[in-house]
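#struct-help
A.M.: can someone run this one for me? Single chain, 230 residues.
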Amino acid sequence: MAASKTTSTGKHRILIVDDHPVFRHGLAQLINQENDLFVCGEAEDYQSALKSVNDLKPDMIIVDITLKDTSGIDLIKEIHKTRRDLAMLVISMHDESLYAERALRAGARGYIMKQEASESVVRAIREVRQGSIYTSKKMTDQIFSRFIEGNKKLAESPLHSLTDRELEVFQLIGEGLGISEIGTRLHLSVKTIGTYRERIKEKLNLKTSTELLRYAINWVENEKLSDTSS
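D.P.: on it. Structure tokens below:
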């Protein structure tokens, strides 16, 4: 792997993409304390992130799963199409057991939960920057187990059966958005979102839209509780 480009001061340039300003600020402070790392810019949504990649030419991107206007998974896929050499690390509140493999398949090289200790976050940044794949030991064991056992081992959650887009629609349903609102957010037609909703109901073995709404709301609330209790 070719060595990463650096600033004139010898520091590796990092772009942070996250829709929470407080988190971006805290992470930037943590990174800028390191002798060889430097936050060259910040972005909160898909379009500003793509512009920053083109304008700032970072060596590495740190991205959240949930952004203001779309999924971080979509952003990773788009960047990976043209910048396969660009290291990307996901730092997110979302459960790694459901999102880590999706992020890696999209083109990221690592996944770490936001509630991890500062030293773990810095270690993840360094390993991904150096070309390694980084996930927690628990997640690494899970990935290897699934690889060895193949499809014989069923996913722990039925949500694993959803595609990336279906999972995104499911999450937005749980956040209380209606079909038209979801369509606007994802730049898709109401008909398309309705089709996704029916597929989700079928995969989760839910009979009605009310059951789906209740299931999705409970899941989103549980994720929030898990994040605040960590």
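A.M.: thanks! The radius of gyration is 18 Å.
D.P.: also worth noting: The beta strands are 12-17, 37-43, 60-63, 87-92, 110-113.
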